[in-house]
Design a protein that fits this description.
Blueprint: E1 2-8, H1 14-18, H2 23-31, E2 33-38, H3 45-54, H4 58-61, E3 67-70, E4 75-78, H5 90-96, E5 101-105, H6 108-114, E6 120-123, H7 129-135, H8 146-160, E7 165-169, H9 173-177, H10 183-200, E8 205-211, E9 217-223, H11 225-231, E10 236-240, E11 256-261, H12 267-275, E12 280-285, H13 286-293, E13 303-307, E14 311-313, E15 320-327, E16 335-341
Parallel strand pairs: 1-7, 1-8, 5-6, 5-7, 9-14
Antiparallel strand pairs: 2-16, 3-4, 8-16, 9-15, 10-11, 11-13, 12-13
The structure holds zinc ion (ZN).
Zinc ion is lined by residues 10-11, 45, 172, 213-214.
């Protein structure tokens, strides 16, 4: 039995691996290879999870944020269902060849978004009875321990009936909460590494690609782009790309934003104002943004605004606020580790995390 295992270590900035001891992961890298790759932009969870399962950037699959503003209706919708994904998933490809695939994830919102075509989908939010019987009830979704439970569920699944393809995608609660050098983070990563060893010994032969969806940075400068522009007489909708129903850990503050202007005649003025604002690293008009970052032009704003390393955008009491939050979404959280080992894995390291399943042939 041979299982292709893709692991998304959510929010594992390369710095987390540098500051922690992870012998199992190190060993995989030694036997295979290890590199620093790039994720898709914006560097947020859903965008990159969909990139991982479809094998391409947002230009291919259409998921450009957690949240989508429909200018025609003035309505905002969460892109949480598979209907928004414009490309086939690796699970659909496996299924077309009669192969069994499985997705294991913490949150139901990811389950409904990414798992199209999977033979079996398991979330910590609504686990099937056989998993609860095998490894106990899951801890809360917003906990450090939920990722440990996901690994135990994967081990149980591989002992029960190993799938041909397993996508194990974790949650980044711990990284939003703890810096790489924090004891709690080091203990968490040691536990995950030991669970990875158990998974690799669970039965089947594995080909493994372990990577992350995005990195993580401590953010201190908050900007409310909507207020900044409105105060200058430029009405708009500013959509932080991280806006999410699960708000506890990042307060909806993210490292980039899409701006939809009420009046396109004000575009140059808006760009100039934003570029002059400390905390704004770069501002891209729609077409330039779509080209530079391989975004889907129909699903982004008139402007794509990227934050500096220490800044975040979101809805705040004032246009400029001091904040203290760990978050992502900008270019500084785009670098991710990629570690791969096993039969069929190409010798040449991947440049992008979304190549994680590109080598799989059925
Ligand atoms: Zn994430």
């Amino acid at each position: 039995m041979h299982t292709r295992l893709i692991i998304c270590l959510d929010g594992i900035d390369p710095e987390y691996l540098e500051k922690s001891s992870m012998p199992t992961l190190d060993d995989l890298g030694r036997r295979g290879w290890r590199t620093l790759g790039q994720g898709a932009m914006p560097s947020v969870t859903n965008v990159n999870n969909v990139s991982l399962v479809t094998g391409g950037p947002p230009a291919l699959h259409g998921i450009t944020a957690n949240y989508y503003y429909d200018r025609r209706t003035g309505q905002s919708v969460y892109m949480e269902s598979a209907g928004f994904i414009l490309a086939p998933t690796m699970f659909e490809r496996a299924s077309a060849h009669g192969r069994r695939s499985m997705v294991i994830t913490a949150k139901d919102k990811l389950r409904t978004l990414i798992a199209r075509g999977a033979s079996e989908v398991l979330s910590a939010e609504s686990p099937p009875p056989w998993v609860v019987e095998a490894v106990g009830a899951p801890p809360p979704i917003l906990s450090v321990e939920v990722n440990h439970w996901l690994f135990r569920a994967a081990i149980a699944a591989c002992k029960r009936q190993p799938p041909d393809l397993l996508y194990l995608t974790l949650t980044d609660f711990a990284q939003h909460k703890y810096a790489p050098e924090a004891e709690q983070s080091q203990a968490n990563l040691a536990a995950l590494d030991s669970l990875l060893a158990d998974l690799l010994n669970a039965g089947p032969e594995f080909s493994v690609v372990a990577t992350a969806d995005h990195g993580m940075r401590a953010k201190t400068r908050g900007l409310d782009l909507g207020q900044l522009l409105a105060q200058a007489g430029i009405p708009c909708e500013a959509i932080p790309i991280i806006k999410d129903r699960y708000v506890v850990h990042h307060q909806n503050l993210g490292g980039s934003a899409y701006v939809y202007l009420d009046n396109m005649a004000q575009q140059d003025e808006a760009v100039a104002l934003l570029k002059a604002e400390p905390g704004v690293e770069s501002v891209w008009a729609r077409d330039a943004a779509a080209e530079a970052f391989q975004l889907h032009p129909d699903r982004i704003g008139d402007l794509f605004v990227l934050a500096t390393e220490e800044a975040v955008f979101g809805a705040l009491p004032a246009a400029r606020e001091a904040v203290s939050v760990r978050s992502h979404g900008c270019l500084h959280t785009r670098s991710v580790p990629i570690i791969a080992c096993g039969p069929g894995i190409p010798r040449r390291p991947f440049a992008y995390n979304y190549q994680a399943a590109s080598w799989i042939q059925w």
